[in-house]
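note to self: dont lose this again. the chain is below, predicted strucutre after it. 279 aa total, dont forget to put it in the shared folder this time
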Amino acid sequence: MEDYSVLQTVYKNDNPDYFRLSLISMLEQTLKPNEIVIVKDGAVPQPIQDVIDELDKENPNIIVQVQLEKNLGLGLALNEGLKHCKNEFVARMDSDDFSLPERCKKELEMFEMDSSLDIVGCPVKEFIDDLDNIVGVRDVPLDNETIHKYAKRRDPFNHPTVMFRKSKVMEFGPYRDYRKNQDTALWIDMLSNGCRAANASEYLLLFRFDEKTYKKRKSWVNTKLLIKIRKEAYKKKFCSFWDYFVVACAQIGIFILPVWFQKFVYKKVLRKHGTRTKN
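---
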């Protein structure tokens, strides 16, 4: 099975304990990566640096630290990290989520079974505070045809779950200089250029969820940017005008309507409920 890199960013406001848990989950993969590229997006506080130094000492010659002089935002930080990834296959990871031990092995197996694939991801279970406090799931389409259709209105991947071919991201991307929704634009760029994709059926990542998630979506900057990305998708004929119109109306609705309504839509329409049982 081929080697792979892990690409992860961290910045000053990240929680050191969450970051440590996420990094350990990648270091303890059943199929261990031969490098983890950590991009420090600007100066980070000492507790975060201590986590990196501690785990680097325990796992020599795996962690690659990339220091950015100032905070550039996720998209540009990921692009800088990609330059340092030595492998064709790159697994994304966020600084507050948790990958199950079999995640990367199973994603690589999907690439081996279908060499035409360029992006692989999976559905996630959402948790609050503790890993065993599962509050919902975020499902995604599984096969290439359904992914392309789904992507006309919604993201077909959970960003921290993806593993992709670096060469394809660099050819059709990379990430754009957006403070938010960099992944949405990248998926459209790649899929509109014929990249093939699949999602595993298993829940291989636990996604940290909290009340702040709702408030972040009510930003006008976030709303305007998503509408812009979808408008560009329409102009390049990736989606129809009706697809663009539906998404634009939905985003404006999220911005205008109160948080409680957004919670209702999220819980009852867009997501499935989990139970408070161990994963």
